[in-house]
Structures are given as structure tokens and as C-alpha cells.
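Researcher: Quick test of sequence recovery. C-alpha cells follow.
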């Protein structure tokens, strides 16, 4: 089960599209085999998703533990289908 670290980003100007899970909860879960951790404190933010679950699903994820904003790592931004 691959686990990836997300990439810390600056707080978005527009909070629409930002996921901010409660402490101890995940921003997204699904039926895939990818997990993502906060790029700052390494808390797991997204669990068991497929690439298609996260691609374009949010603009950023706010970590409930350290309060920093995360985006997908660059290698997961290769192709966007909107
Ligand atoms: Zn964090």
C-alpha cells in the first residue's frame, strides 16, 4: 500500500475546495490503495484512495494537527481531467 507525503503549500486565497478534516479524521477515504501524509507533521490525511479519487478533488487539505496546507505531490499532478 503506497504511502506518499504531500507537499506543503501556502494558505489558498479562496478556501472553497479546501478540505479541513477534524482531528483524528481523514479528509478523504476510498477504495484504492494510496495514502497521503501531511508534508509537515506526517499525520495521515487521506487513506485508501485511488488516484482518480484525489485528482482534482480539492485545492488543498488543511492538516488538523499542525494547521498547514497540503497539496498533492508534483508527480500526482501530471494529468488532470476536468
Ligand atoms: Zn500536519
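Model:
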Amino acid at each position: 500500500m503506497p504511502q506518499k507525503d504531500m507537499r506543503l503549500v501556502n494558505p489558498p486565497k479562496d478556501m472553497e475546495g479546501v478540505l479541513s478534516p477534524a482531528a483524528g479524521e481523514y479528509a478523504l477515504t476510498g477504495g484504492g490503495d494510496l495514502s497521503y501524509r501531511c508534508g509537515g507533521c506526517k499525520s495521515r490525511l487521506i487513506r485508501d484512495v485511488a488516484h482518480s479519487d484525489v485528482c482534482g478533488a480539492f485545492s488543498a487539505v488543511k492538516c488538523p494537527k499542525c494547521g498547514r496546507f497540503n497539496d498533492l505531490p508534483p508527480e500526482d499532478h501530471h494529468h488532470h481531467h476536468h
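The chain has one domain: 3-74.
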